[in-house]
Every structure is written in structure tokens, then in C-alpha cells.
Automatic annotation (TrEMBL):
Entries under SUPFAM superfamilies matching the protein: Cation efflux protein cytoplasmic domain-like (SSF160240), Cation efflux protein transmembrane domain-like (SSF161111)
Protein name stated in the entry: Cation diffusion facilitator family transporter
Protein localization: Membrane
Record flagged with keyword Signal: no
Membrane topology summary: Multi-pass membrane protein
Keyword Membrane: yes
Transmembrane segments: 7-28, 34-53, 74-92, 112-135, 156-181, 187-208
GO CC, any one term: membrane
Amino acid sequence: MAGVNKSIYAALLANLMIAVTKFIAGAISHSAAMIAEGVHSVVDTINQLLLLLGLSLSKKKPDKYHPLGYGKELYFWSFVVSILIFGLGGGISVYQGITDILHPIELGNPTWSYVVLATSLVFEGTSLIIAAIEFNKLRDGQTWWNAIINSKDPSTFLVLFEDSAAVIGLSIVAICLYLSHRLNAPYLDGVASLLVGLILVVVSLILARESRSLLMGEGIKTNTKKRIREITEGDKAVLSLMHLMSIYQSPDEILVMMIVAFKPDLDTAEINDAIDRIREQIKAEFARIRFVIIQPDVFEDKVDPNVQAYI
């Protein structure tokens, strides 16, 4: 988690330092693309603050209203961030780009725009490198894309996506700014703004998809389910694991619920001992599984032990 916070603080500092200078440079050079980049940086700054808020709220202790804790706060605020990127970042940039393509504004002095772009690339590039290094520590041998898809902590890959979009956007703006002055084609400035907006829209949709999936309730992986079945059915008191349900409460907290058929000759005390054994073994092997609820049931031949229900 410390690495995640490091990435977020680095991105926050970078965006905060360059947002104002982008707006100033955009006003001086009459560059819609630079203004769009300024909006992008403001949105990114707000996003980092919301992520930090989500991380803070997700650590609140369980209470009578939320007995399983507040872990899903992080998923909620990550979804809010994806909406902001889509609406404020992508939407405004696309609108500004289309407007300036249809009604080009006379180009101003681009000197300050080049200075700000170069400075921004340094800060955003540094933030991206930090985010990439921290995320790389979490990949565990997976490809980058698979690590993103399998991650249950949106704050890790959200910063990575934002910084990548920022660096790509800055590069596009720099190229279009140069060509617009070189070719005396003011509409290219609007094209740059439009492209930046479309990049942000794509990024926001990817982030929204991942955050929504986690918010709705993703379960554990197939290999983890298989191992839990082995642990449960390997206990001497168990006949069959009839149903297994799981859900991520937060990136580091998983709730597992099982319906287990125990041998019919066991008394209540023996069943309770078996439940304690199974629970402790599962929690010992999987550090993220914090809650294990086991419901005893009667085994019926018509129940297929390979059929599981998931949340």
C-alpha cells in the first residue's frame, strides 16, 4: 500500500505543478490543445485527491452499520474517478477540439507552450516511471495487461493509466502544435485537443469497466476455489463442499461463504471443531481471506459437488 500511495502522491504533485502553467501558456498562445491539456491536468489532480480519499475511507474499522468494514469505498471512488475522466477530461477536450476545428483561432506565440510541454513531459514522465516501477512489483510474473485485469486494487493501475494517457496526450499536442505553426494550419490545434479527448474517453471506459466489476462484487480465482475445495474436502469430518461463494470486500479482504456437508454421525461439537479447523487452514494459506463463513448442511446425492455458486 505504501507503494500505491507513493505513485498517487507523485502523480498529484506532477499534475498540480503543471496545471496552472498549461492554462497560462494556452491563454498566451491561443492554443485550444494546451487548454485541453490544462483541463486534463486539473482532472488528474482531482482524481488523485479522490483516490487518496477512497484509500483513507476504505481503512475505517467495521461498525454496526458496516460489519464487514468499508473496503468498497476504494472501488466507489475509483468509479467516480473514471466518470470524471470521461466527463471533465474527455468530454470537454473533445468539445473544445471540435469547436476549434470548425472555428480555428488565430495562432499566438508558441514559445511558452513549448516550454510548458517540455516541463510537463518531464514531470508526467517521472510520475509514469514511478507508477510503472511500483506496479511492476505487483505483477508477479504476469503480463502487464493480465496484471491490470487481475488486479483487485484499482488505485494501482489507475495512476498508471492516467500517467500514460498524459504522456501520450502531451506528445500529440507537441506534434500538432509544431505542425500548426509550421504549416500555418490553426485547425490542427483543434485536432490535437480532439485526439487528447478521445484518449481520455478510452482510458475512462477501461477504468470504469474494471472499477464497476469490483464494485459489483468479483470473486476469487478458479485456482483459489480449487485449493479451498481441496482443503475443505480433505478434512476427515467432511463429505462434500456443496457450494462456494466469495467476494472481494477490498483489495486485501475477501469474504468466503461455504455450504459444507459433514458426516452424519458427527455431533454438534465435532462439527464446530471441524469448522474451526477448515477456517483456520484457509486463512493461514490465503492471507487476503479474512472472513470464512461455513454453513453445515445435509448431503444429498442429487447435489453435484462440482456445481458452485459465486458472488
